[in-house]
Each structure stands twice: as C-alpha cells, then as structure tokens.
C-alpha cells in the first residue's frame, strides 16, 4: 500500500501542466522579504541556543553574552 502511495505521489509531482501565471514586482518583493525573514529567524534562534548551550557547558553568567550591558 505504501509503495502505491509513493508511486502515485511521484507520478503526480512529475506530471506537468501549463500555468498561465504572472508574478508582479510586489509578489517578488513579498517572496524576497519572506526568505530574508526566515534566514534572520533561523540565525537568531541558532544564536540564542548557542549561547544557552555555551553558558551551560562553560558555566558563565548571562552577563557574558554580547549585547547585554549591566
């Protein structure tokens, strides 16, 4: 059964049809903004957990993180 589902999915993805679509500059701008936002979010999340892990391993206080001033 799983093989039939996989075969059907591959066949559906490999078939092509003509699409009469137009991407205007506003849509392109939205796509670029979304991609840049995703990259920024992933970078921020990586940085946040990197510093948490570093603090846990090295035992430093939270004041040692860059950007935090007391």
Secondary-structure map:
Blueprint: H1 2-14, H2 25-58
Description:
The protein is mostly helical and 70 residues long. It has a domain at 29-65. The protein has helices spanning 2-14, 25-58. The longest helix has 34 residues, at 25-58. The relative contact order is 0.06.
- Look at the helices and sheets and give the structural class: mainly alpha
The number of strands is 0
Order of helices and strands: HH
Instruction: Give the radius of gyration.
Output: 23 Å
Q: State the end-to-end distance.
A: 62 Å
Query: Helix segment count?
Result: 2
Low-confidence stretches: none
Oligomer: single chain
Task: Give a quick summary of the entry.
The chain is mainly alpha-helical and 70 residues long. The chain has 2 helices and no strands.
Please tag this protein with its features:
single chain, mainly alpha, 70 residues, 2 helices
């Amino acid at each position: 059964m799983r093989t039939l589902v996989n075969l059907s999915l591959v066949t559906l993805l490999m078939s092509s049809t003509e699409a009469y679509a137009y991407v205007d500059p506003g849509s392109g701008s939205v796509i670029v903004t979304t991609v840049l936002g995703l990259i920024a979010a992933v970078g921020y999340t990586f940085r946040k957990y990197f510093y948490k892990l570093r603090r846990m391993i090295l035992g430093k206080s939270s004041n040692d993180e860059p950007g935090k001033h007391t």
